[in-house]
What does this fold into?
Amino acid sequence: MPDIVHLPADYPTWLTELKSRIHSAQQRAALAVNRELVLLYWQIGQDILIRQNQQGWGAKVIDRLAQDLRNSFPDMKGFSPRNLKYMRAFAEAWPDAEFVQAVLAQLPWYHQLALLDKLKTEAERRWYVAKSLEHNWSRNVLVMQIETRLFDRSGTAITNFEDRLPKPQSDLARESLKDPYRFDFLGLTEEAQEREIENALVKHVTEFLLELGAGFAFVGRQVLLDVGGDEFFLDLLFYHLKLRCYVVIELKTGAFKPEHLGQLGFYLTAVDRQIKDEHDSPTIGLLLCKSKNKVVAEYALSDKTQPMGIAEYKLLESLPAELQTSLPSIEAIEQALQHTEGESDA
It folds into this structure.
């Protein structure tokens, strides 16, 4: 074993830097391999597409091609008939070679398959591609975001941000909220009470932050505010790293009522005066309710001077007890997804 007694004083620092460089090199190498693989698959898909259109290829030719490629490259996965058909679909869905090279090649092949399988329009695919790259989503997270219709929900909360916040902060703030929020992961039904939902959200804060979106950092729940000797408690307090402001979230288990905004506005004032730093932007409020009348919500927000938003949240529908106990666990679902990924090359 090497003598470590007389090592130079700067050895630990140098070793840390060296390991960091090696790790970065490994990541760059993996990205380069992925890029070349995705580009190869696109080119193969283009060739198949052109020959099918010009020569009327059928499924038997693809089967023969798969067999020949696997015989020629026995150590290389990905040449099953099914995957060759995916390559064709990939090339057909993305005819712009420049976009494939500059953008799509940054995503792993399994991400590409999810985009092809679960989305019908190019606009949706491009949106999820951009979000996947921006937030470094795994394939499982990408699938979850697609299945919970994030594209349709993003930026749809009713807010007064356009009138109460300067640009571009108002646009970013609006895009940071969604409607409705999906809290299915809590395992709670529509009968759950506010405190029960709060407790579950904090217990599952990782999933909650994922649902809120990029930029939110959890500060606390039932945050105490002392105003003139009276005590008040915020349901949930977050800080948004991109907006550089606090975000107060209040939960209501019933339908939205205009008076809810009065309470929320009071909390925003208290946070601005007691917690907010001079370099922070004005605190934003988000009222989450089980349901809302859109017109009533717009009227209620119109005369509010503080930046606020109103959105619904969705829990599980009520289920019979015997059905609830038969539902698979999150761990079982993740294992099934991983098993499916492992078989997709077969």
Remarks:
- The chain has 16 helices and seven strands.
- The first helix runs from residue 11 to 55.
- The CA atoms of residues 29 and 35 lie 10 Å apart.
- The beta strands are 158-159, 181-182, 216-227, 230-240, 245-255, 284-291, 308-314.
